[in-house]
Description:
Layout: E1 8-13, E2 16-20, E3 26-31, E4 40-41, E5 47-50, E6 57-63, E7 70-77, E8 81-86, E9 92-96, E10 106-110, E11 117-122, E12 129-134, E13 140-144, E14 148-152, E15 159-161, E16 174-177, E17 183-186, E18 189-193, E19 200-205, E20 211-217, E21 221-224, E22 231-233, E23 239-242, E24 249-251, E25 258-260, E26 267-269, E27 276-278, E28 284-287, E29 294-297, E30 304-306, E31 315-318, E32 327-332, E33 335-340, E34 343-348, E35 361-363
Parallel strand pairs: 21-23, 22-24, 23-25, 24-26, 25-27, 26-28, 27-29, 28-30, 29-31, 30-34, 31-35
Antiparallel strand pairs: 1-2, 1-20, 2-3, 4-5, 5-6, 6-7, 8-9, 9-10, 10-11, 12-13, 13-14, 14-15, 16-17, 17-18, 18-19, 32-33, 33-34
Amino acid sequence: MKKNNTIQLIGLNSGNIFQLEIDGSGSLISSSDFGGNALASNSAGHIFTVSGLPGGVRPLVEIDPKTGAESIVTQFQNLSVRGLAFSSTDELFAISNTDLNSTTDELFKLNVNTGEQINIGTTVGFNGLQALDFSPEGTLYSWDISKGLVVIDPETAQTTDVNDAVGADVDIQSIVFTDDGRLFGGRDELYEIDVETGETTFIGEGGYDDLRGIEVLEVKNEIDGTGDRDVLIGKAGNDIINGFGGNDKLIGKAGNDIINGGGGRDHIRGAGGNDILIGGNGLDRLTGNQGRDIFVLSLGQGRDIIRDFKNGVDSLGLSEGLSFSDLDIVGRGASTLIRYNNTKLASLSRVDAHTIGAEDFVPFH
């Protein structure tokens, strides 16, 4: 659920959180206690920055895009982060420049759960990288303050100028892709960037003068059911579908949807897109279909039957009060049963229990 082509942006500006419109105008959401040079959102739509504290401590901070409220997730050491980006598999990458006299920057892979930081390599020939984001096709882009748009190999850190004939004739400190492949960037002004040529088109300016991170906020259709038996079908965009009470049939269709069954025995199907499926109370049947889906497990919400969990593609979301170490994962015939203190949370149809490990779980709050 990373980005949506109904464009509305969130920006980080000198510790302040702004909501940005497509015309470049901005309005203050909140003042932050944490400064930062970048923003990144994962597949669940959670937004993060890496801040700086004395002694080289660099906390990874999660920001609520609606209120600006912050919480520290983990911390890294001795990084000077200039750009952050989550891949389609929720691996977090960072551009760092800890030595201003160096002729290169460094590309890192950061573990958001443990704080481990892996140095992938140096960006030979480029030492002014100030932004980072993956295109919908999985290509990693950055912006060099003198050379403009560049491509970085996430496996080796090898960096290539998109267009030698086009330099950085505008001031850009952050970039962000939308789902339909449009690329935006800015600092005190907002631009659209042509990914083929590296050329920029001015959009507008707002009430910010040093924008250091941009992410796309999702604008979704919200569809609510009743206390009876509902059939709710989403639209082509990113939907929020709430079944509430009753035995409901909920279908997301295309887009990255959030579907919550609520009470009752529900049949929930994500269809296309990277969806978040929440069974709610009752014995629910969840089917993700295409995309990288998150099936959310919760205490006191009954047992879910997850019918098409794809190992290595889909994830199991752990809601508040759950951690992987508390779970009991066992095989039951052709399925895998997940329990917490003998309480059944979910069964994964046609999944070998030996293939399920910590890497299949993500926090969900």
